[in-house]
Amino acid sequence: MTEVVEGGSTGSSASGAKGAGKSAANAKHSGEARTVKASAKSQPVYPSNGLAVERVYTTEGTHPYDEVDWERRDVVMTNWRDGSINFEQRGVEFPVSWSVNAANIVTTKYFRGAVGTSQREWSLKQLINRVVHTYRTAGEEYGYFRSAQDAEVFEHELTWMLLHQVFSFNSPVWFNVGTTSPQQVSACFILAVDDKMDSILNWYREEGLIFKGGSGAGLNLSRIRSSKELLSSGGTASGPVSFMRGADASAGTIKSGGATRRAAKMVVLDIDHPDIVEFVETKAREEDKIRVLRDAGFDMDLGGADITSVQYQNANNSVRVSDEFMRAVEEGGQFGLRARTTHEVIETVDAKGLFNKVAKAAWECADPGIQYDDTINDWHTNPESGRITASNPCSEYMSLDNTSCNLASLNLMKFLGEGNSFDSEKFVQAVELIITAMDISICFADFPTESIGINTRAYRQLGIGYANLGALLMASGLAYDSDAGRAMAGAITSLMTGTAYRRSAELAGVVGPYDGFARNAEGHARVMRKHAAANDSVRFFHETDKSVLAHATAEWAKCLKIGADNGWRNAQASVLAPTGTIGLMMDCDTTGIEPDLALVKFKKLVGGGSMQIVNQTVPRALKALGYQQEQIEAIVEFIGEHGHVQDAPGLRPEHYDVFDCAMGARAIRAMGHVRMMAATQPFLSGAISKTVNLPESATVEDIADVYYQGWKLGLKALAVYRDNCKVGQPLSAGKGAKQDAVATPEAAPVVEYHPVRRRLPKSRPSQTVSFAVGGAEGYLTAGSYPDDGLGEVFLKLGKQGSTLAGVMDAFSIAISIALQHGVPLETYVSKFTNMRFEPAGLTDDPDIRMAQSIVDYIFRRLALDYLPFDTRSALGIYTAEERSRQLDTGSYAPTSETEDDLEALAQSVPVTERKPQVTAEVKSDVHSSTELLESIIGVSADAPLCMNCGTKMRPAGSCFVCEGCGSTSGCS
């Protein structure tokens, strides 16, 4: 733990050479790092009021590297599409505890030096030393530590936490710190552009420099006058959307030639800009173009040869809405669009109509997202310095124009102890150390432009956050979409930010508050009080979150007290970032604030090959819920086979939601994601990088409601993605068939086939089933052809003449006509099972004990009655008798063997101990957890292919991350 002695003057730099003070243990390992670029030209400065750093994780006299076992590995990365080797480095050194994925990603992404040369890093020790030594040296030079001994403890503690994957800095730190390259440490940038051609051209240049360094940038184009306004020369302005084309082309070019990742950018436009409709519909129109070109045979997938012909694909677009506009939407009123130069209203529109256009465009192509301007600026610590108008590409960093933010994220699972208690004290100590290191980095960091450097040093924005929240909640036996889960998440987030700002106030007493503090002292203190008040309103549910909340309350009290005396060192302290690549580096099961992707994961093996494995969080969660070892083994085995917990043997239905994931049979509903964001947002300086996923069946109204509820719940920003709304996703059989059709010779005759209705005879067999789902009662009547094929369905639900009864009648007629035209029942079963809506829950059917909706129940019942066993089995639908048989014999399939035969067979089988970890060899066409999940659930995950290695990526916040090589689609 670190402590601060009150009083004393701020530290200053003096000229001279680097000081000594390393212990023998430290000196033993310091030579293992590459030659580090000297970051300073000063003697160490140790003020009397400097930080006194206590040991938390390390042992005096023992270097952290000596406490772990190390091994050499070969890292060979191949492109699964053609088997070619795209990276190879043999004999790299990592701790035995690090996974193959983590070692591969660090080796390929973060080791510096040309491959095959002596300058190339080959050990994790070298990488950590390169970064940590730079931080320690700068901390000593700028007067952060009380003594050389404290600086050494700081170095050892930071090394231990990085070595044991307790936290990670953002990627630019690993790319640049301690190298001969510019010391760019920030992942997130916000730029500014004015209504002048010089400023617009400078925007292109500044973005290019930021992309080159492996980071992303965002900006607001609302200062640029609209296409409905005149220029001083008398002509008409072209508007901001026209200038977006040039920036998009620039980003696409740098993305193709960059060495670290594709360009990431955000473009924001205010809702009152006269060109707002053109901006909103821009990407939707381009998506229409993509569909036409795809159907004409062009390769329009993400990374395809022809996708570059389409514009605006390299940026995330967001609309900035005001409370005035949202109230007009609520009330059905009018809203004025204002000229940029005179601010007078030049057009009045229907607010709800405009809002629906935003939702419709997002429904069509996932853009634009939405940002809530008044909420953002109500939590702004620097209101006297200007408004917050934009964000970084992933929408978690929101601050002044021409600023940047460096990020770091904690691995929450590292603080979950025995008995599922959260170690608040160690968490506080870790946050203290990380915030100190992050603030030190601003002292030596380089910035892509002079204005960004000046403003970042003046306001010192930081972005501490976390990963593995989803895994932590599941391991604790808490459902992600539950009040208890949200309370735990809110308490942890409050503790993190309260500690960060308390440490920031302490740093202000050592090295001074940020330069812009005096001007914004009242505004900054007001936001601190708002955070503390939000903390007081959190309701606890268990002893664990009660304890975390008590620690958070104490931290906020100290933050306010120390800040009143010292001010604060940092204008901002916390965000929730995607944690894509660094999440893989830390071996996290879940990224950022996200729930688990799926219960079954893809895992690489040492020496090559791969397997599927049930998340180890699952057995821990089952134990926390009170299940016995035998029950845990049976449930885990079921999950390994089916990929979900629905109907798992011995698992109580009330515990199903603990294992709900982002995808699969029990996907978390959209508002579950929104409510989790709302539970943590009041405790963050910035915002949250997260995309709310909706099913393909979601409507424009559904998306409009998500955007509206985000405003009502106090979020700062929100993005959505509807399944299959974009063409740019992996190839499918349907696409291949289309391409084959294009290649057909023109002379070949075209034969069109039309389905023919096969009507049922006047007299036909039928059966009627009464049912109850979640308390709602109904009747299902199914009529068959004489040769035993289902031909019609009648549903009686609700009172005669009611809306529900009428809708179900229409639904029955539509299904019946389709069945008679040859649509297989199997198709309907695969589409409608697992559809979730109320009423849902327990049924009175012994074969189907739980249903996620009435439609889910109906098609499960029809499958059991009319589909053959093999077909049902592929869909995971079994009778109660078949499930019982599986528990007794290990197989669902009916058998002709007699009981004597079975008894003799059981006696002949040797008994082996069953392990809770279920693994299986992965199919040869599966290369990531996302593809593995798709193979289980049978539907597309809508994730793009990695541009580097071709593996399918998985979601990470509002971006995607590749599990194969660590590449991301954004700025984590």
UniProtKB/TrEMBL annotation:
Name the protein family.
Belongs to the ribonucleoside diphosphate reductase class-2 family.
Q: Where is the Ribonucleotide reductase class II vitamin B12-dependent N-terminal domain?
A: 75-165
Domain (TSCPD): give its ranges.
Answer: 765-865
**Upper taxonomic lineage:** Bacteria, Bacillati, Actinomycetota, Actinomycetes, Jatrophihabitantales
Question: Gene3D superfamilies from the xrefs?
Answer: 3.20.70.20
Q: Which reaction does it catalyse?
A: a 2'-deoxyribonucleoside 5'-diphosphate + [thioredoxin]-disulfide + H2O = a ribonucleoside 5'-diphosphate + [thioredoxin]-dithiol
Region feature Disordered, mapped onto this chain: 1-45
According to its UniProt entry, what is the function of this protein?
Answer: Catalyzes the reduction of ribonucleotides to deoxyribonucleotides. May function to provide a pool of deoxyribonucleotide precursors for DNA repair during oxygen limitation and/or for immediate growth after restoration of oxygen.
- Source species, domain of life: Bacteria
Positions of the Ribonucleotide reductase large subunit C-terminal domain? 186-721
Q: What EC number(s) does this enzyme carry?
A: 1.17.4.1
Q: Where is the composition biased (Low complexity)?
A: 11-28
Coiled-coil region list: none
Indicate what this protein is called per its UniProt record: Vitamin B12-dependent ribonucleotide reductase
Cofactor(s) needed for function: adenosylcob(III)alamin
Q: Which UniProt keywords apply?
A: Cobalamin, Cobalt, Disulfide bond, DNA synthesis, Nucleotide-binding, Oxidoreductase
Q: Which InterPro entries match?
A: RdRp_reductase_class-2, RNR_2_N, RNR_lg_C, RNR_NrdJ/NrdZ, TSCPD_dom
